[in-house]
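Researcher: Sequence of F-box domain-containing protein follows. Predict its structure.
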Amino acid sequence: MDFSRFELLPNEILIEISDYLDARDTYYAFYGLNLRLNALLLSLDRLYIYIHYNGRSRIRHDHLFALRVHTLIIDRNRLLDNLQQFPNIRHVIFIKSFEKKIEHVINQLNNLEHLTIKVKGQGGASRSIYQRIFTNDFPCLKSFIHKASHPPSLTNTWTQTPSIHFLDVTSDFSRIHMFLAACPNLHFLKITIPKLAVTLADLKQHEKLQRLHLTITTDQLSFDELPFDSLFVCLPKLEYLYLQQSIMNIDMINNLKQSQWLANVLARHLLSLRQFKLTLCLSANQHFDIQQLKTNFSKAPFDSLFVCLPNLEYLYLQQSIMNIDMINNLKQSQWLANVLARHLLSLRQFKLTLCLSANQHFDIQQLKTNFSKAHDQRYEHELKII
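Model: Prediction complete. C-alpha cells:
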C-alpha cells in the first residue's frame, strides 16, 4: 500500500497522530481537506486543548469540536476565555498555576473526573482545595494528582470522597491515614515523602487499596525508619508494593541489607502481595567501595525475603551502579537463579536491569545468553543493559 502521502495513511495511524496534537491544530490543519478526514475528525471524542502562558486563549471555530474536548491543559495562569463552550471536559491539568486560577476553573466544571496540578514548591493546591476535594465537592472525581516539592499544610477535617480511586500526592508519612480514611474506594495510592515525619496515627482497615507506591526524596530518612507494621496491618488486600529511595548513600544500603525488618513485615501482613519493587538511587557525590558494593549486592538476603512471598508473580531488580567485574561475578554465580527456584514457585516474570559505567566494554550477547541459560524456562525472564 502506498503511504507516500498523508491522506493515504490508515485511520489508526491518523487517530494516533491526533493524540499528540491540540484540538485546534488538528482541526485547523485537516478539517475540510476531504470527506474522509472530516468524518475521521468528527469521530474523535477525547480531544485536548493546551492553553500556553504566551499562547492564544480564545478559540475560534470551536463549534467543530467543542463537545468532544475531554482534557484541558493550562500552563501558568492563562485562562480559557470561553470555557463554558466545552461542557464535556473531564480532565484538567494545571502547570505552575496559582490557587485562585485553579479554583476559578474547577468551579465551572461540575463533572470533573481527573484533576492534575504540577507546581514547584508548595503552590498550586492549598489547604482549601484539598478540603473541597476530600469533602466530596467534586462527586465525579476519580483521580487527583498533585506534584509539588513540598506538601501543603493540611487539617484533619475531611469527610469522605467515595469516587476517588487514584491518588498521587506529596505528603508527610504521618498524613497517610487521612487519605485512606477520606477515600474508602481508593485502589492506588502514590505518596512522595520529602521530609522527616514518621509517626502514624491509628489506621482503620482499608479493604480496597491494592497498589501502594512510596518514594522518599530526602537522605535524612530511610525505609527502615518508617512504621510499616502499623501501615501494612491495615492493608490486607495490597497486591503491588513499590518502594523507592531517591537519595541513598552506602551506609543506608548496608543498614538495609543487614536488617531483616522488611522481609519480616511483608511476611506478617501482606499475604496477598503479588509484586514488590525496591529502587535505591545512589548519591552522585558519594565515593563507594565498589568491591564492598558488589559483595552486598551478591549476598543480599533474598532467601529471607522470598521465602516469605510464596505468591509473588512479578519481580523486577535494578542495580544502578555496576562495572564489568560485578557483572562477571553475577554471571558466574547461580545464586539468584537458585533462590528463585527454591522459593518463588508462582513466579511468572523476572526482569533484571543493570546500569553499566560508560567506559566499560563487554560482550552483551554472551552475557544475555548466559543469563537465559541460568534461569528456569517456567517463567518469563529478561536482562536489560543500560
